[in-house]
Amino acid sequence: MFNNLTDKFEIIFKKLRGHGKLSEQNIQDSMREVRRALLEADVNFKIVKNFISEISKKAVGKEVMKSLTPGHQVVKIVHEQLINLMGTDKFPVKLPDNRLNKIMLVGLQGSGKTTTCAKIANLFRKQSFSPMMAACDIYRPAAIHQLQVLGKQLDIPVVADEKSKNVIKIAKTAVKKAEQEDANILIFDTAGRLHIDSKMMKELRDLKQLLKPDLIFFVADAMTGQDAVNVAREFNEQLEFSGVILTKMDSDARGGAALSIKAVTNKPIIFVGTGEKITDLEEFYPERMASRILGMGDVLSFIEKAEAAIDAEEAEKLALKIKNNQFTFSDFLSQLQQIQKMGPIDQLMGMIPGMNKMKNLQVDEKEIKHVEAIIYSMTPEEREKPFLINGSRRYRIAKGSGTSIQQVNRLIKQFNQMKKMMKQFKNPKFMKGMNLPF
Q1: Which of 142, 285, 407, 425 has the fewest CB atoms within 10 Å, measured from its CB?
Q2: What is the pLDDT of residue 289?
Q3: Which pLDDT band, with edges at 50, 70 and 90, does 438 fall under?
């Protein structure tokens, strides 16, 4: 996410921070490079022009030029302007749970509306809502079936009529059924096209007039950059949506859509899709995203993911085991699996300040699978008492896990190093030098 832009910004600001004092020429040169980086990231030209103008005005002021750390002050200004660009406030998605709330998803074909429909339903269910989904995409082959499959996986009801070609009729049926079953969230997966056409927009306007939805989310593929922004503008003019959901953000190394869409439509980004799993939908926080773009990490999001994935009671038990030097391979496997629940390791690394600067850090997901296979190939006794694992046992474990003796030896060595480190658990620097097996 934003890898290309982050790398370029880091190079630009490293040069800037290298100057003890800044001249107007230094700032102009830096802003020229920032401008080029943003245009290459597919950010709207007019937005880039205004963005650079605002930063330049503030950066050549007395407070910055006479500051002891002028380079850092410029970075701070850029950070603030990025937040302004993406929205100074987070959009509050708060809906009452004592009535039926209706949400419409709109957008072009291929933007990920159907999957996003299920992701939102899952998200609201976690907030103690009773969601239902309505399959109103009657044009795309298998769209209805796809939503039904997702609904079955999540155990969330889907209202569909594969024989009907009347979207209004399907929507009315969905509302009636939701009211009968006391659902309080009904999400409509609407039809898209490969491009905007009058027939599609009329259908959506008619649906909006019928439903009077509480929220309309425009779903856009972040990887399409300026195309997504231009389409968003047209949709907003005709439907006036509530906010934007950007999908495929995990694959978007440029970031043009995320940086342009708020300024163009004056509607906030509310959620971002960060992967293919149903749980890969995050609320959008402009300040956190600005920090990630500038390579400052996103510690708050990391903590939230950890709190959601890691069991507090288990964490307390683990702390006690570490304190008593009783950490085992079973504990190690449990922790590894809980970390994986937080999401792809490389995405987590991007949330930790400074990790993006470690260019040689390669997270090999296959290696993690090898570690799991090795531990699963141990007997319960071997997991609890690693000192029992002699040469013949190592051979058996390697054969059973489809790995080599060298890989088994390396994991055991790293595990023993980790146990030694954990003896210094009370020291906040105990992680320093730890060689993790992935």
Answers
A1: 142
A2: 83
A3: very low
Q: How far apart are CA 205 and CA 295, in angstroms?
A: 42
The 3-state secondary structure of 74-110 reads HHHHHHHHHHHHHCCCCCCCCCCCCCCEEEEEECCCC
Greater pLDDT, 16 or 172: 172
Q: Are residues 118 and 262 in the same domain?
A: yes
Q: Residues 359, 315: one domain?
A: yes
3-state SS, residue 343: coil
Asked if residue 190 and residue 282 are part of one domain, the reply reads yes
Is residue 264 over pLDDT 80? yes
> Model confidence over 21-44: pLDDT tens digits?
778 888 888 899 999 999 988 888
| β-pair type (281-283, 158-159) | unpaired
Long-range Cβ contacts of 193-202 (<8 Å, 24+ apart): 193/108, 193/109, 193/139, 194/108, 194/109, 194/110, 195/108, 196/108, 196/231, 196/234, 196/235, 201/238, 201/239
Domain-embedded: residue 66 = yes
